[in-house]
TrEMBL record:
InterPro entries: Integrase-like_N (IPR017856), TACO1_YebC-like_2nd/3rd_dom (IPR048300), TACO1_YebC_N (IPR049083), Transcrip_reg_TACO1-like (IPR002876), Transcrip_reg_TACO1-like_dom3 (IPR026564), Transcrip_reg_TACO1_YeeN (IPR026562), YebC-like (IPR029072)
Species classification: Bacteria, Bacillati, Bacillota, Bacilli, Bacillales
Keywords: Cytoplasm, DNA-binding, Transcription, Transcription regulation
Organism (species): Gracilibacillus marinus
Pfam family membership, one: Transcrip_reg
Subcellular location: Cytoplasm
Protein name, UniProt field: Probable transcriptional regulatory protein ACFOZ1_09315
Gene Ontology MF terms in the entry: DNA binding
Residue ranges constituting the TACO1/YebC-like second and third domain according to the UniProt record: 80-235
Length: 239
């Protein structure tokens, strides 16, 4: 799964360069999670996961507090969670997760991004069956063997544990997210380079150089959309 890890890492590095846009997206996601349950991460697991992800992107406390306070204040702005699926150059697959207060606008914007950048929309389920919903943790300063032993001691099931470029990566089922995290906390591991629930492709595809450029334009166009929270794909973008 090393190649998949590099794509996760590269995606995060690219996002880190677009801080204002990323902070706005996290603000919306935190607000929705807080509004759907208790505005307390200790009793709202969805909110807790979002806040943990926000931490790995260094989202300022002021943005987090503002979003939670907005939810506490009974704000009536409602968002729908919608998933779109589509194809890029050479049959590459993409999953686009959105949070929107205007479904028609979002659908039109996503479709336009595909159509203008060498892609086309698919139907629901046309791509997602080729991806696995996965919990991923990236940990530095520890050996993979130590992590494996720790998880075994706590009887936590994981899909894989590998070490690459000085980082230990843990892949687990989504429902094991908190079990993995709690086991690591007992080893005083509370800082992660990545702590996410993501969609990992079962197989990755390589594109020709000219298709890679077109594909990256498609990804950028989708991620630039205000309503788009996450874009997942099955392309090996290389080193």
């Amino acid at each position: 799964m090393g190649r998949k890890w590099n794509n996760i890492k590269d995606k995060k590095a690219a996002k880190d360069k677009n801080t204002s846009r990323i902070y706005a997206k996290f603000g919306r996601e935190i607000y929705v999670a807080a509004k759907q349950g208790e505005p307390n991460p200790e009793s709202n697991q969805a909110l807790k996961i979002v806040l943990e992800r926000a931490k790995t992107y260094s989202v300022p406390k002021s943005i987090i507090d503002r979003a939670i306070d907005k939810a506490k204040g009974g704000d009536e702005e409602n968002f729908d969670e919608l998933r779109y699926e589509g194809f890029g150059p050479s049959g590459s697959m993409l999953i686009v997760d959105t949070l929107t207060n205007n479904v028609n606008r979002t659908a039109a914007d996503v479709r336009a991004a595909f159509n203008k950048n060498g892609g086309n929309m698919g139907t629901s389920g046309s791509c997602s069956y080729m991806f696995d919903h996965t919990a991923v943790f990236g940990i530095e300063g520890i050996e993979a063997d130590e992590v494996i032993e720790l998880l075994m001691e706590k009887d936590v099931d994981v899909r894989d544990v590998i070490e690459e470029d000085g980082t230990v990566i843990v892949y687990a089922e989504p429902d094991q997210y908190h079990a993995v995290q709690e086991a690591l906390k007992e080893k005083d591991i509370t800082e992660f380079t990545v702590a996410e629930l993501t969609m990992l492709p079962q197989n990755e595809v390589a594109l020709a150089e000219e298709d890679i450029e077109q594909f990256e334009k498609l990804i950028d166009a989708l991620e630039d959309l205000e309503d788009v929270q996450q874009v997942y794909h099955n392309v090996d973008l290389g080193e």
